Structures are given as C-alpha cells and as structure tokens.
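Q: Choline esterase, please. Structure only.
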Amino acid sequence: MKTYDAFPEPIGGYAVGRTQMDVEYTASDHSKRQLTAFVYYPSDSSEGKTTSTYMFSEVYEMLNDQPLVTEYLKKKDFFSIDIKTQCYDDLALSGKEKRYPVLFYVCGGGGSPEWGTVICTDLASMGYVVVSIGHQNSTMYKRKDGRLFNVSKDFSDVIMAFSGDPKMLALAGKMEMRPDDETAIEMCHNVLTLPILAKLTEYSELQAEDVRYVADYLYKLDSGELNSIFKGRLLLDIGMGIVGHSYGGPTTAIVCRDDDRFACGIGLDSGAFGLLDSDLKKPFLLLFCEPNYNMNAIIGANNSMETYYFSVDRVAHLDYCDIVFTSVNEELRGERDAMEMRNLVTDYTKNFFDHYLLQKAASVESLAYDGVDLIKKTSNK
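A: Structure for Choline esterase:
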C-alpha cells in the first residue's frame, strides 16, 4: 500500500497555526475533568518555523495499554506517527479578517485529538478556528503540563461490551445495506433501546459537556477575560459548528441539541447513541459507509431542521480520519485513494459549514463524487 511521509498541503490559502491549551472543570456528575485542546487557526505566515509534531510519542505508546486495541492489532503495525504535519506551533493569528468563525472536531472513542489533524488543518487554512479536545477517559492525550491520560478501563469495557452484546450482534446481522426509511428507523430504535447503551450514552454526554465547557472558555478568550491571541477575534455571534467521527458523532449531535450557541453539526460514520427522542433543531449532515444508515436513521426522523444522509462506497470506518495517510496496515483501509477520501470529507464538511454558518451559497448537494449518494434529505419543519 502507498505510504506517506507528509500530510497533504492544506486546501486553503492561509498558513495554519496550532496552539495547545489545558483546561479543567467539575462536570455535572461531580467528576474532575482534566482536558487538553488543540486549536488550529489561520495565519499569514509560517514565520520560518518547523512544522508541529503530529502525535507525541508517549501518546502513541499508550495504545499498547488500551484494551480496545486487540491482540491482533498489537501484533501488527496499526499506524505511524512519523509523518510531517502542515501546521505550525503558536503562529500569529491572521490579520486578514477581523474575526474568524469557530468549529469543533471530536475524534473517535479510543483515539486522540490529533487524529483529525488533516481536516482541522484544511478547515483552518480556509479561515476557520478549529478546536479538537482530548476527552478524559474516552481518548488518549498529553497535556501541556506533561501529564498523560489514557482511555480508562471502564470506557474500554463499555465499548467492548457493546460490540460483543448478543442482542446488538443479532441486530447487526439483520441490517440491510440500503434499507427503506421505515426499516432503518425501526432498526435504529431497536439498537438505541438496548440496555447496554445506557453507559455508553453517559460518556457521550460527558464529552458533550466538555465541548460546552471549552466553548465557554473560548468566549472568555474572545472577551479578553483570559489572555490569548484570540481576544476580540472569534466570530461567535453567528454560532459555532461541530463535526465528530465515529463515537464522536453522537457527541456532536448532543451538543447541537443542548447548546443554542451551536448552529449545525456533522457526524462522520457515526451513530445516534443518546438521541432516541431528540429533535436537534439544527441542520445536521451524516456521511457514512453502509449499512450505517441503520444506526442513525432516527436523527432525521426527529430533527425539525434539514438532515442530510450521504452514503459513501468503497471506504472503511477509519478512512474518515488521519488513518488514510498514517495507516501501515492495509486491512484497516478502504479502496479509495487517500487524497480522494481527504478531498471528499473536507469538501462536504466545508460546504456544509460555509452554507449554514457563513450563509454562503455553497451546497453539499452540488458536490459530485463517484459512489457518494444522497439517500435522504429530511426537514420536519
């Protein structure tokens, strides 16, 4: 398989800065949450700096301690971190615009906030400020203060219990590749009412609470209450957008449902945990591999705003993140070329946010990629 020594050049015209922030707070369940966040943003020059480190080696090594990483994957190389990024630490924020719109990226469960480096860099190069959070217990990361946080055993146990649940396996065996709406909604309802989902949903809700806290933090940065390069520079009054991959997808939907500061969201090959009876009241886009429609059909059935379902063929679950460039195990990859997959995900994401946040004429329905089908667009207004 083709390997890469560098991520692709960003699509947009800005150089991309990246800065890291540690935050902590007490969550609604009284747990102490110690998080980190990488913020990608537009800059006018790379200032002669070398590119940012992709993933800290200590974080990569924590994979071997994760129960989520099977013995099979431990015996084979999973992915490499020896790759050049296209962002730079702590550049000056671009002066071309007075304020820049804000997006959040949520990585998959067991992953790290750096796993979305390509899409975050692309979006920042096109004028967005993009925040990717390390979520305690469900992701792995290294804080600026040096402390390491790995996926907790409890979260791992919950994920593995779900994937091995006999009732879930029975339902998965009945999922059709392109079901009619009624069949897909019924299947999704049956999945979401499984008892095993309760604990999984708790983690999704905690991640959503993390996002809302970091959003609060950004408001303080913009107001100048906290000192940063972002004082008076964040375009917050139009709302924020959020995109999540895999387990991060339900988090994006919960954030949209519960926080009016977020205007729209995207799920990349994700599900609908915790969203059984939820009207998101926000435009939402789902980009996925079949038979994933069975896992999220209920979102559009309940949402009073536009919901787009795009089915993508010849891709694997991890193709929606940096693995398309960092993977050294071809069994983890789909059939699409890595650059094509990157362009596809970035285009749908950018056009969606450009339209629903910036009110541009951009349209996801105007995009044309072979094997990408709009299988449904709903609006229950």
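A: Brief note, in case it's useful. Residues 197-223 form the longest helix (27 residues).
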